[in-house]
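Write out the 3D structure for:
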Amino acid sequence: MRVVDVRTHVLLDPAYDPGATSSAQDTIVVEVVTDEGIVGIGETDLNAWIARACIEAPGMHTMDRGLREMLLGRDPLDPRALWDELYVGTAMTGRRGALVHALGAIDIALWDICGKAAGVPCWKQWGDTARDSLTPYASLQPEVTSYDAYVESMVAWGVRAQELGFRAVKCEATFSGPYVHKGLYGPDEQVVEVAAAVRGAVGPELAIMVDVQYAFDSVERALAVAEALAPHDVFFLETPLWVDDLAGYAELRRRSPVRIAQGEWLSTRFEFESLISGECVDVVQPDIGRVGGFTEALRVCDFARRAGLVIVPHAWKTGISVAAAAHLAMVTPEMPFFEFLPAELCESSLRKELVQDELVFADGVLRPPERPGLGVEIDADALARFAEAAEQLVRDRYAKVT
């Protein structure tokens, strides 16, 4: 089998809102095409236009090669070896960040090909099964422009998630820092108010996580919020400090009564080694695309397992990333939950319409994926519609410039 093409699709929700700090509004889908007609699908989470450039750009020399051109003509059935070759071959541009994120989409697509060729779901290629069902958590981020409406919507969505059978939810409660959503700036106490309101509405049975998205500029601020959250039985506090402040994370983890989670932005196992070896977190959160695909995510999970840490991957994208997280969970016993952006509780049409997957949610769990590969099929009409929206955005932006 040989790779004969690598196709990239930059997609945009036509209702894209620049005031909504949400990467679920756009995506890049990568298709790796083989000479035997098998097509692998992958996705990653970064600016989709930048991801496309990382994949399609021609290489200039032996240590600055192009991802697409390196793949053409290669056998796709050994993703681990290809990952190492692609990583080294692009090292002067890559090593971390955007190029590794783009490599992640390719790696997911390669494992999809392997599963389809073997007639098994991706997870059956990686070792022993860790579970017979999957427990997703619902990520909640209402699209409103006032604090009162935000709390009201968050509580309503939390109750709705519980009614749908979810056993866990994550509340995005970001009122300071770079990720403030819809301009909803406010005091740190509002983080606790959101968590308390949801806890009061859903009772003690539902697990609640809180994501403040790099909101705090000091350990003391983060610790004050963690201590105030503790009485509300919060499972973890996500990304309270800037991603690179490893010393701050280590201190906060030592002092916090609530588990500390981080890792969604990190790329490669090497960045996670620094996070884990520094005893910076209780919960490791690799994003499968961003970290470098299944190949690197599995390596990170092995490292986290040996350190005795909990693993809860990040998956704020379309059904492709959700399916990827489900496959990883099937072989990761340290993963009590994985992120699930339910179509009923989100605004993104990309999440709702781009793919058809086999994941069936009932009684709080998902059945294991059983179709070959990822088990995901792209809706061709939706793909064309979202691609046109992306092209129109570029036309509009350049029209303003000229």
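The chain has a mean pLDDT of 93.
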